[in-house]
């Protein structure tokens, strides 16, 4: 079953013993293409392969649309949580992104704290956001 689940994740980054996996899907039923709005949902799994507990404190996203416009998003935790991961534990969450172009990308990092209080960054892998190109009117 684990292999089936991990095959859903298309993008992976490993930093300091923490693995971040991402699966992304375009959501046509939540998009309003006629209004120039495209929506994606992304599923993230964070895995602690270290020998110590780590806690996710904050996130930093770089979201780029199809015109090259960059939006930086910083915030505490993920979807209202600051998960504490013991060795071998994982944390999954789902979130979304809306763009005014039919393509773009996301990447970034999480800031974690170790048991000794030291902060460290964990990469979120680059992943493309791609939807069918809008039809010419």
UniProtKB/TrEMBL annotation:
This is CO2+/MG2+ efflux protein ApaG. GO terms for biological process: error-free translesion synthesis. InterPro entries: ApaG_domain (IPR007474), ApaG_sf (IPR036767). Gene3D superfamilies: ApaG domain. It comes from Croceibacterium atlanticum. Pfam families: DUF525. SUPFAM superfamilies: ApaG-like.
